[in-house]
């Protein structure tokens, strides 16, 4: 089972460079299955699980390169992964790379490429620490972050993670920005083709209009995942500390008991 999952992850990482960060939640999932408890990264089993997943994924990912001629490997990497990392094509899209690297000075370009690419991966570390006992939610969070910070994002990436929102329906009552984020998504989807047409075809607008819309769109995605993470952690906090609340509140009278039972039902659903 682990080999098959690692093979699928390797194929995904082979097609999408940023998907290599999904090795972390997959390794945590394997670890939770083995230890049947809370995840501790200093545990030898945790280290073994992460290294095994990483090694199998890397082997399955780079093994097709062995079929190429040695002189062709460098050209292949430069034309695929190098293209994604160095961002030579600056065609307007819904990402944050194209406008910035159109305006940046050339001698600063390499520095900001490193900053932008590190920014896409750096969130894996704190999220893996905070959500180490919630591997599936960590996987979903990283998928959302990949669609935000990758160099060439598409609407398909957004539609993919939005289709899994019903999986987290139990967090909706804890989310606070649903109305604002929903309207931001709708308005960006409606106005992006209009602004693109006015800029590229009609010539009555400039790049600032379209780039402002991409900032709003990416801001909506950041607000969405931030609100979802806070809602998930708030619900997890309520469920884990509910026993402490029961000991602090005196349930001597029926009204208090009825109120607490309704709270239990509302938080557990």
Give a topology summary.
Elements: H1 2-15, H2 23-35, H3 44-62, H4 70-79, H5 81-86, H6 97-103, H7 109-122, H8 124-130, H9 135-149, H10 155-162, H11 178-202, H12 207-240, H13 242-248, H14 254-268
Helix pairs in contact: 1-3, 2-3, 2-9, 7-9, 9-12, 11-12
Report on this model:
The chain crosses the membrane at residues 7-30, 50-68, 80-101, 107-129, 136-152, 184-203, 209-233. Pfam families: PIG-U. Keywords: Endoplasmic reticulum, GPI-anchor biosynthesis, Membrane, Transmembrane, Transmembrane helix. The chain has helices at residues 2-15, 23-35, 44-62, 70-79, 81-86, 97-103, 109-122, 124-130, 135-149, 155-162, 178-202, 207-240, 242-248, 254-268. The chain is mostly helical and 269 residues long. It folds into 2 domains: 1-150, no CATH class; 166-269, no CATH class. Helix content is 72%, strand content 0%.
Mean pLDDT: 81
From the alpha carbons, calculate the radius of gyration and give it in angstroms: 23 Å
What is the H/E order?
HHHHHHHHHHHHHH
Number of helices: 14
Q: Largest sheet, described in full?
A: none
Assembly state of the chains shown = single chain
Ranges with pLDDT <50 over ≥5 residues? Answer: none
Shape category: flat
The percentage of residues in β strands lies in: under 5%
Overall tally of domains? 2
Q: What's the total count of β strands?
A: 0
Helix content: over 70%
What structural class do you assign from the helix and strand content? Answer: mainly alpha
Termini separation (Å)?
A: 32 Å
């Amino acid at each position: 089972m682990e080999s098959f999952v690692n093979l699928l992850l390797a194929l995904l990482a082979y097609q999408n460079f940023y998907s290599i960060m999904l090795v972390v939640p997959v390794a945590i999932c394997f670890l939770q299955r083995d230890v049947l408890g809370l995840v501790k990264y200093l545990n030898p089993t945790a280290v073994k699980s992460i290294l095994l997943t990483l090694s199998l994924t890397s082997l399955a990912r780079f093994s097709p390169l062995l079929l190429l001629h040695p002189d062709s490997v460098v050209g292949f990497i430069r034309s695929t992964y190098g293209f994604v990392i160095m961002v030579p094509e600056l065609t307007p899209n819904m990402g944050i790379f194209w406008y910035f690297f159109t305006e940046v000075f050339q001698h600063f370009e390499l520095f900001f490429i490193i900053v932008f690419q590190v920014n896409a991966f750096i969130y894996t570390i704190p999220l893996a620490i905070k959500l180490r006992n919630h591997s599936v939610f960590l996987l979903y969070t990283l998928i959302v972050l990949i669609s935000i910070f990758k160099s060439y994002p598409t609407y398909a990436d957004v539609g993919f993670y939005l289709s899994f929102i019903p999986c987290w329906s139990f967090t909706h009552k804890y989310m606070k920005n649903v109305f604002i984020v929903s309207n931001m998504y709708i308005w960006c989807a409606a106005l992006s083709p209009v602004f693109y047409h006015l800029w590229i075809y009609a010539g009555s607008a400039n790049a600032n209009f379209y780039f402002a819309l991409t900032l709003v769109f990416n801001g909506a995605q950041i607000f969405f995942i931030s609100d979802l993470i806070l809602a998930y952690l708030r619900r997890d906090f309520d469920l884990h500390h509910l026993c402490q609340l029961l000991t602090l509140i005196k349930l001597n009278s029926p009204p208090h008991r009825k109120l607490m039972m309704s709270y239990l039902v509302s938080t557990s659903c």
